[in-house]
Amino acid sequence: MKIMGYVLICLFHLSCLCLAVTISDVPSSDGDYTVINRSVKEGYFSLYSSGNFNPKQAVSRREASLIINKIMNSMREKKSSISSSDLGDLKQLSETFKPIYSEYEDKLRTLELHNQELKHNQDLLHSDISELNQSIHAFRKERKLLYGLLAGVGLLGIIF
To answer: Rounded CA gap, 12 and 75, in Å?
Structure first.
């Protein structure tokens, strides 16, 4: 069993080395290096036996057709990854949660109405508080005048 494990580990490392792509004629500092490297790794382009990519070489119509075919096949595979049973499950989930969503939407509307009512009440309270503050200010003014009059009358009483 241990031997089988070592063999699998060795095969894994060898496959990683085989899949490692080094492009010899495009420096890794090139702005397009990552795009070129990805297109080679995904099989849209291949390197020449020397490891060169030859980025300035034009693509023939045949090569362009092969690349387009690979892209289309890749898109078909991704498109078909959603099965009809998955769509059925999604529809069932949608139907299951539709009443719950509707219920919470109604609750949200009710809360929004309550919130508007509370804001209106807050505005009324703010207005009442402003009026009370004005009344308190007027009362303090009147009290000062009254104390002033009492003091004046007291002085007049002392003088006469």
So the answer is: 28
Q: What is the pLDDT of residue 17?
A: 44
Using alpha carbons, select from 49, 48, 45 the residue that is nearest to residue 32: 45
- What Cα–Cα distance (Å) separates residue 6 from each residue in 14, 19, 97? 12, 20, 51
**Confidence (pTM):** 0.35
Name the residue with tokens 């503050």. Answer: 133
The helix or strand, by DSSP H or E, that contains position 28, with its residue range, turns out to be none
CA distance linking residue 24 with residue 56, whole number of Å = 14
Residue 129 has pLDDT above 90, yes or no: yes
Q: Using the 8-state DSSP alphabet, how is residue 60 labeled?
A: P
Retrieve residue 86's tokens.
């998955």
Cα–Cα distance measured from residue 45 to residue 55, given in angstroms and rounded to the nearest whole number: 11
Q: Residue 75's Cα: distance from chain center in Å?
A: 26
Q: In sequence order, what DSSP letters do the residues of 69-124 get, joined into one string?
A: HHHHHHHHHHHTTS-HHHHHHHHHHHHHHHHHHHHHHHHHHHHHHHHHHHHHHHHH
